[in-house]
């Protein structure tokens, strides 16, 4: 049992060591927030809606939480109470309307 504990302790410290420098007691550089490294001209509001296209398990829930935390209205998978985003988009296109016209309005759609 003690050898299992030692293995577990070693594996945990190796994971922590990748994110946290144990010698300096600081978060590693790659995980620190960066200072703005782009011109102010580049820091303009993005046109809305923001559409995240991706495959399942690609961070769409995290993107949804990020936009919500920032005060934006975000839809994740369901674009209204009863329908998935893909359904209301399909209905809109079939009716000859803009793609999101039959979906609830949002600043970001994170899983279509």
Walk me through the structure.
There is one protein chain. The chain is of the alpha/beta class and 112 residues long. The chain has helices at 2-19, 60-69, 85-94; strands spanning 20-21, 26-27, 50-51, 74-76, 108-111. The longest helix has 18 residues, at 2-19. The chain is elongated.
- The topology string of helices and strands comes to HEEEHEHE
The shape is elongated
How is the biggest beta sheet arranged?
Answer: 3 strands, parallel
Low-confidence stretches: 2-18
> How many helix segments?
3
Helical residue percent band? 25-40%
The counted number of beta strands is 5
| Average pLDDT, all residues | 75
What is the percentage of strand-forming residues? 5-15%
Structural classification: alpha/beta
Oligomer: single chain
User: C-alpha Rg, in Å?
Assistant: 21 Å
Strand order of the largest sheet: 3-5-4
State the end-to-end distance.
Answer: 48 Å
The gist of it:
With 112 residues, this protein is of the alpha/beta class. It has helices at 2-19, 60-69, 85-94, and strands at 20-21, 26-27, 50-51, 74-76, 108-111.
């Amino acid at each position: 049992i003690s050898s299992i504990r030692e293995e577990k302790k070693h594996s945990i410290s190796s994971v922590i060591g990748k994110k946290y420098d144990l010698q300096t007691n600081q978060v590693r550089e790659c995980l620190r927030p960066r200072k703005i490294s782009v011109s102010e001209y580049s820091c303009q509001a993005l046109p809305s809606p923001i559409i995240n296209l991706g495959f399942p398990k690609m961070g769409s829930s995290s993107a949804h939480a990020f936009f919500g935390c920032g005060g934006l209205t975000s839809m994740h998978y369901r674009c209204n109470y009863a329908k998935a985003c893909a359904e209301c988009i399909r209905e809109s296109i079939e009716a000859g309307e803009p793609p999101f016209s039959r979906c609830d309005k949002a600043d970001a759609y994170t899983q279509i």
